[in-house]
Design goal:
Elements: E1 4-15, E2 19-20, E3 26-27, E4 29-30, E5 35-38, H1 40-53, H2 70-77, H3 82-88, H4 90-95, E6 96-101, E7 104-109, E8 112-114, E9 117-119, E10 125-137, E11 140-162, H5 164-170, H6 174-190, E12 199-209, E13 224-227, E14 238-241, H7 243-251, E15 256-263, E16 269-271, E17 274-276, H8 278-281, E18 287-289
Helix pairs in contact: 1-6
Protein name: Type I-B CRISPR-associated protein Cas7/Csh2
Pfam family, one: Cas_Cas7
Organism: Diplocloster modestus
Length: about 290
């Protein structure tokens, strides 16, 4: 197993990508720049929910529909042996965990890490009032009134790293990474809730290197969103410029084993302002599509 780096893009239309409980569940924002923010924990939750739906037992999960303590979850596993626990729990192999084993806390540092995601465009937050059919209290028979916050449109980019050396410590498997690839393709639209509907994965690259020593850096530095109109509201009003990224990766092609990818048909790619397919843009690399 060797190192990989990830670029993951999805968009959000009239939805709330990541509510902030300290701000009335408003979408997380850098208000000075008008940038929508999404935490790495939100992305990992999508992955965990997808893996749970695929039948994988997880460390971070509810039991019988209710939250439990870490101690209770460990007892349910029926073992305190490190390796047996790792063999059972794909989320620990991927993301690590601090686990109460015996009288100590055993820390596994996750080989898969993501930065916070941020929007490539400036984002407007829309606010509306919502009402409930149920009375707000026994003494007030009127329905409760609340606030609903959503982004008008946000094109969100995440960067991630897979460390081969840390993967050895958690017994990370190649099959686990393949499941991560599939989760990032399918998890978000499959985990639809009222506040999350309207989000779709648009582009995914996992650049797999030839060694466990190579890290080239955040690929978001080499992409930009071209907006066909002011105040965009839909992916049809955008195009993604990847020319600098292609050039950068070609400069380092000797370090790259393969690129695992998917590209949504609605995501228009530009290579230095020329519209191209994904295969045309990344011609010369070993490309493996995530099915």
């Amino acid at each position: 197993m060797n190192n990989s780096e990830i670029l993951f893009l999805y968009d959000a239309k009239l939805t709330n990508p990541n509510g902030d409980p300290d701000e009335e569940n408003r979408p997380r924002m850098d208000y000075e720049r008008g940038i929508n923010m999404v935490s790495d924990l939100r992305l990992k939750r999508y992955v965990r929910d997808y893996l749970a739906d695929q039948g994988y037992p997880l460390f971070v999960q509810k039991m019988d529909g209710s939250p439990v303590t870490a101690e209770t979850r460990i007892k349910k596993l029926g073992t305190s042996n490190d390796q047996e626990i790792l063999d059972q729990l794909i989320d620990v192999r991927l993301f690590g965990a601090t686990m109460p084993i015996a009288k100590d806390n055993k820390q596994f540092i996750g080989p898969v890490q993501f930065n916070w995601g941020y929007s490539l465009n400036t984002v407007k937050v829309l606010e509306s009032s919502i009402t409930s059919t149920f009375a707000s209290s026994d003494n007030n028979k009127q329905g409760a009134i609340g606030k609903d916050f959503r982004v008008a449109y946000s094109f969100i980019a995440f960067s991630g790293v897979i460390s081969a050396n840390r993967g050895k410590a958690t017994s990370l498997k190649e099959e686990d990474i393949a499941e991560l690839d599939r989760a990032l393709r399918y998890a978000i639209p499959l985990q639809v809730t009222r506040s999350k509907i309207g989000q779709y994965p648009r582009l995914y690259l996992r650049v797999e290197y030839k060694s466990d020593m190579t890290i080239l850096g955040d690929m978001r530095d080499y992409i930009s969103l071209k907006e066909k109109t002011e105040d965009i509201r839909d992916i049809s009003e955008t195009a993604l410029e990847v020319g600098k990224l292609v050039d950068f990766l070609k400069e380092n092609i000797g370090k790259i084993d393969s690129i695992h990818y998917f590209c949504d048909s609605k995501c228009i790619l530009l290579n230095h302002d020329v519209e191209v397919t994904f295969q045309q843009a990344f011609d010369g690399f070993t490309l493996i599509e995530v099915e």
